[in-house]
Amino acid sequence: MPHETKAELKVLIVGAGPVGLSLAIELGSRGIPVVVIEREVRGGAAPRAKTTNVRTRSLLRRWGLADRLAQASPFGIDFPNDMRFVTSLVGYPLATFEDAFNAAPTRNTAYPEHAQWIPQYTLERILREHAQTLPSVELCMGQTFKGAEQGADDVIVTIEDEAGTPYALRAEYLVGADGSRSVVRDAIGAKMVGRYALSRHYNIIFRAPGMADAHRQPPAVVYWQLGPRGFSAIGPMDVDDVWFFALGSVEEGVQLSDDQAAALIRDHTGIDLPYKILSKDYWAGSELMADRYRDRRIFLAGDACHLHPPFGGYGMNMGVGDAVDLGWKLAANIEGWGGETLLASYEAERRPVHRTVIDEALANYQIALQPNMFAAIEDNSDTGASIRQKVGAGIQASKGREFHTLGTVLGLCYEYSPVIVREAGPAPAHDNSNYVPSAYPGCLAPHAWLDDGRSLYDLFGSGLTLLASEDVPKVEIATAVTDAQNAGVPLEVVQPKGVPVTALYQSKMALIRPDQTVAWRGDVWINVFDRVLGRELDAVL
After folding, report:
1. What is the 8-class DSSP label of residue 103?
2. Mean pLDDT across the chain, nearest whole number?
3. DSSP per residue over 168-197, as a string?
4. Residue 367 has pLDDT above 90, yes or no
5. Cα–Cα distance between 131 and 36 in angstroms, integer?
6. Model-level pTM?
7. How far is CA 306 from its chain centroid?
8. Other CB atoms closer than 10 Å to residue 213's CB: what's the count?
């Protein structure tokens, strides 16, 4: 139970996973008073995600956490983020996808941070430790959300502590970041719409000393095993010989003993070691979206409002994107420089992105392999070799879209957002695998490296940023600054030397939001603050 709050509570967050912690950091970095409650003890051996993608690590960079995450890499940041399809760990290679999700630690002009293979519980630890350094953020574990009542200006939240004693907290806003079984979602009467249990899976986390030296395959983060025993995935997860094993197409609700789990690993890998089972869990992959993400002062984020099939590594990363989008908009509203339409734009922007990402994950899921081909796939014969060649070619031709996703990770635009100054003509077409930077309003700001080694993104402020080419007249900049001051809008002006702003952005100026999204661009400044901050209707009223 919170013993004290350092100021009037503004936002109460239910859920201390990556989404809730990211939202707390986004708000707490601005000094917004936040309380995060969580009913469970976070951590344990079972990760819910293992890939922190390019976009998420770029957002972590804004909080000074990207390097800390890199330092926590269990195998070193240079460990090859490859996906290898094999008949088994001791069997034949079939196909390889190198540098999945752009995780190689090389400098890229398109983004400031590469992806990283790291257990979700490690990411959570780093987020939690940082959140605890923010004076306006309070983390309260062992606290259970029981209900909420909304007023015109607040939400009264009923909570139960570890002893079962109820108490109430008042906040201006409540956010449910409490996962797929969200009780906050239930509280606002939102329903998940779509298809449940498209696939059923069983995950096993285990320790196996000597595992890395017991097989014949080159290093990789995932070995996808397609053999006579069926389909499974296995790979190194953490230090101290901790590995994961994932089985698809299992029966609903299946539960295995530790001995059964160890036997499965031996059977699929062909390696007999003394496996110590650390955790086991059954889960279902679904495609579901909430029919609404908000009820007045209560919002949903992450798995509480969208669930993705587990193909492409999108789920947790999309939730962090939700947190940043919602976080800066809540802060703008609380601080008085954002309007009601800005809050409404959270769902208007994120829902289409969620739909597109779910469709991409579904496309990956629907690329089916033919199990009847696996029976003789390990035969040391011409027939076995022919099967391996055919299966490998099919994998190489079809599965690349699952592992090379930069066009989806960076290239989706908020084309129809109510707080974007739209231009004539359509937004750039979506291409899952290929990212072409565009400053079309609603798209991610094109990236560049500065001569001193910093990222262009490092210059962007926590409010709005006016990015201008070096040749924009001072009077033009002064007019924008005056408009911002008159509107009470925090504005950072950036005219970076050596950056070809006009070529990159196809305009001499661009107005960048805190989430690195282009809100407007043009060669001549016009006052668009009311539009991009959702205050147009407020101004009329």
Report:
1. -
2. 93
3. EEEESEEEE---TT-HHHHHTT--EEEEEE
4. no
5. 10
6. 0.95
7. 12
8. 6
